[in-house]
Fold:
Amino acid sequence: MSSIYVFDAYGTLFDVHAAIGRFRAQAGPEADRMSDIWRTKQLEYTWTLTLAGHYAEFWVLTERALDYALARVPSVPKSLKASLLDAYFKLDAFPDARAALKGLKAAGHMTGILSNGSPAMLKGAVDNAGIGGDLDGVLSVDVLKMFKPRPEVYALVTAHYNCAPRDVTFVSSNRWDVMASVSVGFRGLWVNRSKMPDEYLDFAPAQILADLGSLAAAQ
Structure:
């Protein structure tokens, strides 16, 4: 069984919709639609830039995606932009994230994060959630100047922990992220909080979890 558990950050440990959650009343009835567009474009920009051979820091793309989302949903006041960005920098962790990490550490496993987020963004979220003491590594794509799902990104894990791919369990709420991790030889676990249909059937996860609270049973 894998001895190293590495997590995606945004959407897996940290709730990407927590930012709009803090300002839902001010944002109005289309708050959730705006937040969905924000997240969708944020990811789309990482993929298209990487495919085209370009790179911009994840924080830059996060702001660009928010600008686009606010333009698409004009009922959400643009005056909320600064507050939303500040909230995203200090995202809330899912309630089960801290317990999952502590449980893994208590069981003797090593832990870590592998994320598209910039080092500063990751520090902000980790510090806000108070989970730094339960992590053995926080790895950012920024050292490579390319985003997931490039296989070079996942190689950061084996280099950092000086291990073989089979030693790594990779945990993500993004099915495409799990696909990429399985393709490089990791044991992939998909946290399917939203009960989405499966994809990438040629790269099946070792297990599908309803949330991080189910992780103990998957060890």
Remarks:
- The first strand starts at residue 4 and ends at 7.
